[in-house]
Amino acid sequence: MPIDAARLRAGLVRPAGPFATLDVVASTGSTNADLREALVAGAADRTVLIAEEQTAGLGRRGRTWVSPSGAGVYCSVLFRPEGVPFAALGSLASVAGLALMDLTRELDVAAVLKWPNDVLAAAGSGKLAGILAEASSSDEPSAILGIGINVSPAREPARPGPGGLAPSSLAELGANTTDHTEISRLLLTFLHRRESAWLAAAGDLGAAGLLDEYRAHCATLGQQVRVVVASGQDLVGTAVDLDRTGALVVATADGDRRTIFAGDVVHLRPVAG
Asked: What is the DSSP track for 225-246?
């Protein structure tokens, strides 16, 4: 069934809810790209765009996010978080990760977070959702948060991402509903709750009480990992912690600790003990 925009607006758009506007489109290139244009045009804080299909969906580092019609929920939200410094905008990806943990728990699906922007089946068998946070350095802090959720298996198999993770879906993991409207409603409800705490703490995950929760859900911690950073170099070590901004702390074999703000992470194996 198509996503019911009227039902979503009735409960989520002002004055009934926290969002400024909410639109649903049958197909678009990329919801994040559309909201980047809307940002330039002056769109309000908490503008929401949901697509039934993306023909040019975006992942991290310019990758494609496969977004076929009927298989998922593809949602972007424009935030203008007053009082949050530009350097803290990237931690919105962690906020979204926790909202997705709330969602999967509500749907009776066992899932975990993979730093920095993935949600995996708890058994490690596949990728359920991805997050793309894009900060803008315009006159005021702003960010576009994109979330793609695999609700049902796609007709055509997608190419595995970094580390060989194949896609999985809520339906395959026994979700108690696969109704796209209800999943969209729950996602936005949980995202609002998490973002409100983050905003009240001026983007500080620790002060917002979100950092320890993220650590608890993050399957990357305790893993031996290979991180491919922007320079293209590989860093191999043990993921030992997250700092207050949500950056990953990796301990290398020579005893150094490196803080990674962005990069592709491949889980190699859990560290014994």
From this structure: EEEE-TTS-EEEEEEEEE-TTS
**Distances from the Cα of 60 to the Cαs of 32, 133, 145, 215, 272, in angstroms?**
12, 9, 12, 21, 31
β-strands 257-260, 248-251 pairing: antiparallel
The pair of structure tokens assigned to 210 is 């979100």
Dist. CA 222–CA 21, nearest whole Å: 41
The model's pLDDT over 83-128, given as tens digits with 9 standing for 90+, comes to 999 999 999 999 999 999 999 999 999 999 999 999 999 976 699 9
pTM: 0.92
Cα dist from 266 to 99, 162, 211, 227, 248, whole Å: 23, 7, 22, 6, 13
- The domain made up of 5-214 has a fold known as BirA Bifunctional Protein; domain 2 (3.30.930)
- H and E: helices and strands count for the chain: 5, 12
Specify whether domain 220-270 bears CATH 3.30.70.260: no
Q: Which residue has the tokens 């929401």?
A: 48
Q: Which pLDDT score, from 0 to 100, does residue 45 have?
A: 97
Query: What pLDDT does 257 receive?
Result: 94
Rounded Cα–Cα distance for residues 113 and 219 (Å)? 6
Of residues 61 and 88, more confidently modeled: 88
pLDDT higher than 90, residue 3: yes
Domain ranges of the chain: 5-214, 220-270
